[in-house]
Amino acid sequence: MEALKRIIEELNQEAAQIQIQGRGLSPGEVRRVRVIHEALPRLREALVLLSGETSVNLVTYKIVSDMAGKLKRGARTACNFWNRFVEPSSSIVIRLGTFTSKGNTIARAYYPYEEAGVVYGRVEFNTKYLENYTDNDIAGTLVHEIGHTLGFGWDDWRELFHTDTGKFDAEAVEALPALEEMVVETDGGPGTRLSHWDEYTFDKELMTGYKDLREHVLPVTVDIMRLLGHRVIETLPVKTDLNILLDAVSQIAFARHGEARALDVDYFRETAIWENIPHDQPLQAAAT
Ligand SMILES: [Zn+2]
């Protein structure tokens, strides 16, 4: 088991070193980072199996309606993504469905609700976009939405920073020094403002309020989950391309059906819309 831990550590460091150089990567380097990220979740799974330390809570999904299995594939990848990094303080069920609108709303998310210790998040995708979106576009959108369900925008998060400046307070920075550099979005509509990293400063990061084509994930997006009450299982050593992270877990079968079956994935309560994607449009547009 020690040998396995060492291999994981070494691969992590190697991937970090390749990416940390601050220049564009050669195709060979990109391939190497991809291979490492594909290997890491599997090696960790082996480690968990050997150590017997299994997580109790997980992120899982329920499909209400779909288009050629696209949402299901996206949901599996998005759940695998978060289950790789975080054990949530309560299990999360993402309830997924479709709607059809000629407008430019790609997807809409509703206020989460809680029942019997399980948190439910509801996301609906516009079939107009679902049709042409790649698997990673869909999974990336869902990873962002699950990020909200895990706490981006909710009470514990809002206690960490000053709402006028978006800067994190001393206590938060002491608990997680990387927050010194971070700023929360203070512009935009109600679903965007105070619920994301600042768009101007962090542009293509996963948890900024505007969807971009080639996004990345900063280590702090995973690390802050600890301050939001969750257990961080794996940290991200450096800023990493979101596509690489999604590809790494997209081929892994959802391994935790047994635990997911113990949850009431069907529980449903009607709640109001929380955000539209893209975030920069008024909420009423979702009804068109
Ligand atoms: Zn958002």
Report on the structure:
There is one protein chain. Helices cover 40% and strands 15% of the residues. Residues 282-288 have low confidence and may be disordered. Strand 4 (107-115) and strand 5 form a beta hairpin. It has 11 helices and 9 strands. It is globular and about 50 Å long. With 288 residues, the chain is an alpha/beta fold. Zinc ion binds at residues 144, 148, 196, 209, 275, 279.
Average pLDDT over all residues = 89
Radius of gyration: 18 Å
Q: Please bin the fraction of helical residues.
A: 25-40%
Total individual domains: 2
* First-last Cα distance: 56 Å
What sequence of helices (H) and strands (E) makes up the elements? HHEHEEEEHHHHHEHEEHHE
By oligomeric state, this entry counts as: single chain
The total of helices stands at 11
Strand content: 15-25%
Write down how many β-strands occur, each being a DSSP E stretch of 2 or more residues. 9
Instruction: Sketch the major β-sheet.
Output: 5 strands, mixed
**Given the C-alpha coordinates, what overall shape results?**
globular
Uncertain ranges: 282-288
The distinct bound ligands, ions and cofactors come out as: zinc ion
Strands of the largest sheet, in order across it? 1-3-5-4-9
